[in-house]
Structure formats: structure tokens, C-alpha cells
Amino acid sequence: MNSEIQDLVNKGEMLPLMEEFYTIQGEGYHKGTAAYFIRVGGCDVGCHWCDVKESWNAELHPPTQISKIVENAKKYSDTIVITGGEPLTWDMTPLTKQLKALGMQVHIETSGAYKLTGIWDWICLSPKKLKLPTQEVYDKANELKVIVYNKDDFRFAEEQAAKVNKDCILYLQPEWSKRDKVVPEIVDYVMKHPKWKVSLQTHKYLNIP
């Protein structure tokens, strides 16, 4: 990557775009609603169960002008979900400013491990043990979504729930490959601790992206 392009990426005026697609939000509070997803490459959080490991290496995904990303997005939906990878690896302010200027609802799905940039209508925080969120993301998160892979994740979930703001909605979501084992454990846990809700990857059950 030449230095001019690298400078634009550093400023958030270009982003390593992995993919963009219009689909149904499958998880969390907005599940079942149509949204346009922008998946940005680059992540060093390194979850072993990540289902989009191809997003980790930003160099595999072409730096794309944010004006082009916005142009594509506005054709499809008023609700935009920016995900990754880890989108906060990059400065999200230029992209979200352009989307908000068009009156769009802009959501992010993030581990919260980096500085919070951007203008957001909804922040879905999905914290990871390897790199914990910043305090600002805890303070501003609208929903907390903890992935349950094993029993220790319930302990981690409570630890994280103690750090978010009082209005944050709490979700436990089974890791897809372990769903047969952990779904009954999650159901039992939520029934005993009703401040939590169950989140399922409904898009996978519906067999859509």
C-alpha cells in the first residue's frame, strides 16, 4: 500500500472493505429487521471461535473510498450495521458522519477494545477476554452480547455486566459450533438470572448471510 493510500486509511477516509450486503439482522435487540452490513477488515483480538477469521488481516481487503461505501449503502436500507473484524481498529468518524448526513440509523458491533470513534445510534458491545473494552464503550453500550463457549463465560458475562451502564440490555448468545451443548445451559441460566436475555444467531437458522 502506498503512503498516500495509507494516510487516507489512517484518517478513516478509506477503509479495508471485506464485504457489504443487505440482509436480516440475526442477533441481539434488532434481530429480524432488515439492515445493510458493512464488514471492515482488520482485527487482532483473536477469538479462536471467530466465524470470520478471514477478516483479521486488513491487508487482504482493498482500501475503499468511504464515499463509495456510502453510495452503495444508501441504495438498500436506512439501517446500517458496521461490523468486522474490529471496526474500531479504524477511525469511524468520517464514514458515520456521511451516513448520518443522509439520515441513516448507524449501528456498530464491536469488542470495544479500541478508542470509540464515530457517531452511533446503537452500540452492540461483544467483549472478549483477550482484550477488554475501554471504559467509554462500557459507558455508552446499548446492548451487551456475551458469547458463551464454555461455563467460564457465565462468570465473564457477570463481570462485564457489572461494568456497563444501567440501561444496557444484557444478552447471552451460544457460540454456534457449541450450540447443542450450551443452549440448555444458557436457558437455565437466564431463567435463574432474568436480567439476561437469550440471543440466537437466527440468520443461521434461516440460512441467510
From TrEMBL:
Keywords: 4Fe-4S, Iron, Iron-sulfur, Lyase, Magnesium, Metal-binding, Queuosine biosynthesis, S-adenosyl-L-methionine. It comes from Aestuariibaculum sediminum. Belongs to the radical SAM superfamily. 7-carboxy-7-deazaguanine synthase family. Catalyzes the complex heterocyclic radical-mediated conversion of 6-carboxy-5,6,7,8-tetrahydropterin (CPH4) to 7-carboxy-7-deazaguanine (CDG), a step common to the biosynthetic pathways of all 7-deazapurine-containing compounds. Substrate binds at residues 24-26, 39, 83, 209. It comes from the Bacteria. [4Fe-4S] cluster binds at residues 43, 47, 50. One of its GO terms (molecular function) is carbon-nitrogen lyase activity. The keyword Membrane does not apply. This is 7-carboxy-7-deazaguanine synthase.
